[in-house]
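Worked example 2:
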Amino acid sequence: MKTTQIGGLRWYIAVTLFLATVICYVDRLTISILAPVIKSDLGLSNVEYAAITTWFLISYSLFQSVFGGIYDKYGTRKVFSVAIVIWSISAMLHSVARGFRGFAFFRFILGIGEAGNWPGSIKTIAEWFPARQRAFGLSIVNTGAALGSVVAPPLIAWLQINYGWKTTFIATGAMGFFWLALWLLIYHKPAEHTWLKEEEKAFIQSDTPAEQVITDILPSRSWKELLKLKQVWGIILARFFGDPIWWLYLIWLPSYLYDVRGYSIKDIGTFAWLPFLASGVGSLSGGWLSGYLISKGKSVNFSRKIAIILPTLLMVLGIGSIYVATAMQALWIISLVLFGFQFWVNNVQTLASDYFPVGEVGRVTGMAQTGAGLGAITFTMLIGWLVDHFSYSPVLVIGGILGPVATMSVLILGGKIKRL
């Protein structure tokens, strides 16, 4: 019996990764949306809340590199399955936490599981898309971060109001098991997938030179050898300085709206999704722009750099939210910042597959994600201290400065973007 083949299968794979990222962000944001309630119920300070989120960031950062190596060794199908089981169970177990230690422990385990999402997604896109479509393919995945952040506030607020925060954690955590069934059904490597048409397989490999195919099946560079390359450090430092901008608003936006702008939980559920909707548009726009420029004959080097430099200008605007009078004006400014960030990060994430063969993408991506997490840890703890001792104003100023620093890191150290 002939196996059914599906045209455009790579896009179905990208959408499956998109759904995983939606679930990842709903699970991640549950505690952020519920922070005002949980802090009130348990008597937690901003420093203690920062410490709970930092335990997540510690494991999330460290295990990005671990997962990167495991993906390169064992493949995405098995490893992604393990990752989502870990994060779904730990998300549900938040419901039994009774204080700071319980939340910190379950956040740490959640970070281990969610650390598998991005190395797995980026490696899968590198396997399934030619270079000229990778940024757009990855933008679909990145849009999952935006949609998850859009869905989370109203969904979590509704669950909290109607069922309480414990049931909310159980409901959001359970979603991962539905995704796992879909993943096991749809995902295999292109070379092994019986649903993949030969013409699509040829297209996926269309810009892969023969020597690169050989390189991908030979022993790749060691961790030590990779860490000697300035391009690796350019990507790591860009993520170290850039990603705290995203985490600032991901973790602290509900608390900022509640503490500074006078929003209730209901108000947060009604309006806090707006910046994340803008970030989704930014992600798709960033992926489209660099891909469009490449399709028009521009080099990968030119196309990626244009798509990295332009949105950097928008990330500076967060400083302006200090000076506006209303919460809605602040939300519009933050929306521009997150539009710029996702536009930017979508192209920075693609650099691993621009510089390195598929057999090394997992490890380079893992190291970059670890750098991103370490930056987020540093800034998150600083935010907790600054808010308790001063206000959100110095936090927003620092957040505005980080974007240009991140972009300069990748431009100076990365050099010309080409296969090494």
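The first helix runs from residue 9 to 42. The chain has one domain: 9-204+222-414.
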